[in-house]
């Protein structure tokens, strides 16, 4: 459903959030190893998350990345929009350039409810919730 980059971005945010109680910044190598991603690819994702103000970055020997939750909780929609934009919720599922309620494609109306539900879920699920599930070990969620 999401791009591979977006999946990794969500994993990054959840991983960092699980370590937040320790109050330390998490380095690139640690993050890349935990989410099983090449460092260069992980670095690019981290840059995008910093540019989107979802993470803060500190240089130096005690540096790394930390969640920027000064604006309140971070929801999945924030991560998805930062990485993939809103195409998932706005573009035609069949790939047509022009598709709307005024000029719908053959399946436009079949996906209206699905998109509304997806948007609602992305807007109501925050990373703290996911990190809590991961940290507790309950459920089938694993970072790798």
From TrEMBL:
GO molecular function, one term: DNA-binding transcription factor activity
Gene3D superfamilies assigned: Winged helix-like DNA-binding domain superfamily/Winged helix DNA-binding domain
GO cellular component: cytosol
Domain of life: Bacteria
Family matches, as InterPro entries: Tscrpt_reg_Rrf2, WH-like_DNA-bd_sf, WH_DNA-bd_sf
Family matches, as NCBIfam families: rrf2_super
Name of protein: Rrf2 family transcriptional regulator
């Amino acid at each position: 459903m999401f791009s591979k980059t977006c999946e990794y971005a969500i994993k990054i945010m959840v991983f960092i959030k699980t370590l937040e109680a320790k109050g330390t910044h998490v380095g690139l190598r640690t993050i890349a190893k935990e989410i099983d991603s090449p460092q260069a690819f992980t670095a690019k994702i981290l840059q995008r998350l910093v540019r989107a103000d979802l993470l803060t970055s500190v240089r130096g020997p005690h540096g790394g990345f930390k969640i920027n939750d000064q604006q309140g909780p971070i929801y999945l929609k924030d991560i998805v929009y930062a990485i993939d934009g809103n195409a998932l919720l706005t573009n035609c599922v069949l790939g047509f350039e022009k598709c709307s309620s005024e000029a719908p494609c053959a399946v436009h109306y079949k996906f209206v409810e699905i998109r509304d539900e997806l948007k609602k879920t992305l807007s109501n699920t925050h990373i703290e919730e996911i990190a809590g599930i991961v940290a507790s070990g309950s459920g089938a969620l694993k970072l790798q």
